[in-house]
Design goal:
By secondary structure, this protein is α+β, with helices and mostly antiparallel strands. The strands form two sheets. A four-stranded antiparallel beta sheet has the order 1-2-3-4, covered by helices on one side. A three-stranded antiparallel beta sheet has the order 5-6-7. It is elongated and about 75 Å long. The protein starts with a strand and ends with a helix.
């Protein structure tokens, strides 16, 4: 049997890209108002020449938004190659490897309606752990779930 892969979800990747574009766009708008728009600057400058809270926010917010967009971009770059793989011996998720013998149960009660299933397995020190795999995070989960059910039955 060939290995089954569930790559990083297009849904999640597209949502991250939307947030990056939104943060950059709104940050550029605030930067324009805070630094370049003479009418906005005049409107939000007090009589003593000091900027009011709105102008101060429009001057400081773009830096925070740029930082948030950068963090999301780094997260996207790190996560784009993330995947769940079911091969002959085990289920692999990054550095986590769960041999099929250690899988105790699969709860797929919510898979059809909510798109996730819970995998209960024994960890190294015989501790029971639970792993939640969602179709919002990974594509191709129905095929992966079918493979897991075949392997543990």
């Amino acid at each position: 049997m060939a290995e089954i892969q569930a790559p990083f979800s297009r849904y999640k990747r597209n949502n991250i890209l939307i947030w990056i574009v939104l943060l950059v766009g709104v940050g550029a708008w605030f930067a324009y108002d805070g630094y370049l728009s003479r009418a906005f600057i005049e409107k939000h400058t007090l009589e003593d020449g000091q900027p009011d809270s709105t102008l101060l926010f429009n001057r400081k917010a773009p830096f925070g938004m740029a930082a948030a967009a950068l963090v999301l971009g780094i997260y996207l770059a790190v996560s784009k190659n993330k995947k769940v793989v079911a091969d002959e011996q085990a289920l692999r998720l990054g550095s986590l490897e769960i041999p099929y013998e250690r899988i105790e149960s699969i709860n797929k009660t919510h898979f059809d309606k909510k798109g996730y299933f819970l995998l209960t397995y024994k960890a190294d020190q015989e501790q029971t752990r639970e792993l939640k795999l969602s179709d919002r995070s990974y594509d191709n989960l129905p095929e992966l779930l079918d493979t897991l059910i075949r392997k543990i039955s």
